[in-house]
Amino acid sequence: MAIFRSHDRRPDAGSAALAPVIVDRVQHAHLELIPTPKAHLQFPALPPACTVSVTCSPAKDIQATLDMAAQLLDLGHTVIPHLAARMVEGPDHVAGIASWFNDHGVSDVFVIGGDAPEPRGPYLDAAALIAALLDSNARLTNIGFGGYPDGHATIPLPALAEAITAKQQLLDSAGISGWVSTQMCFDTKAVTRWISQNRAAGMHLPIHLGIPGVIDTTKLLTMGAKLGIGASLRYLRKNRAVVSKLATPGGYDPMDMLAPMARDIETLDIAALHIFTFNQVTNTAEWRRAVLDGAGPTESNLNTGSNNDSGTSTTAGAASLTRG
């Protein structure tokens, strides 16, 4: 079963669902891919010259992220590699990564702490690696890091708030732009509240709103448990109407999350969408195309059988989303 599928739903052109700000964010959405052996089979489904975020996880090494990023660059896409701090071995490794960025013209990077149980070097969290990258010769212009509207499975809320401040200060001091990419969360009110509270606390970086794409329901819920997004899963359990929509063909699509936030997108400075595809790109790309064409996704333009070659593993996908 595909989640966020909408059969014969065509939002009215004047509705909030097709507000210009939402159409703009959908058009320029960043699509996340996981570097698996079959990930290249998803490349043809990507929109032309789109922005692709390539994850990093303990199941692979950083070179796997960079290798896939190079393939996507060769196809004309803009690429944002993810770097997991706990997988970076030391200053020489940072220097090598910086050289790779410069050689390939990569100026944007997303930095996480990573879920490796034992760090491979001195970088225990995202802030430490960001500092090292800023001290390197990498010609970076934008550095992103994670935000957690649902909280984090292992990091207390006060520590999460302090980490946002520390990472933002690093970027400000270096004169580097950045962004905060939110963990997947199903409760739009919780997301809006989290952004508003952090704005009040001094967070000024733009937000990249993390939402799941058109993916298999079972995979999404399984990944939710793996990723520790317990609050969102509890929200689903308490809101049976939402669960019913998730389980009903044609009952739900990403626009149901975006439309309620239409009035707040610019006020909260939600500058981009970060769509978790879990390497099931075709359906999300068709949904995107349908939105841009002014029609909701339909049975005919969502091929739910196209995901057999996604090559996605829950282990490989988890790390890019879980630790800040």
UniProtKB/TrEMBL annotation:
GO biological process: one example: tetrahydrofolate interconversion
UniProt pathway annotation: One-carbon metabolism; tetrahydrofolate interconversion
UniProtKB keywords: FAD, Flavoprotein, Oxidoreductase
Pfam families: MTHFR
Gene Ontology MF terms in the entry: FAD binding; methylenetetrahydrofolate reductase [NAD(P)H] activity
This protein's record includes keyword Cell membrane: no
InterPro entries documented for this protein: FAD-linked_oxidoreductase-like, Mehydrof_redctse-like
Regions of compositional bias (Low complexity) in chain numbering: 300-324
Region of interest (Disordered), ranges: 296-324
Organism of this sequence: freshwater metagenome
Gene Ontology CC annotations of this record: cytosol
Family, per entry: Belongs to the methylenetetrahydrofolate reductase family.
Cofactor dependency: FAD
Protein name, as recorded: Unannotated protein
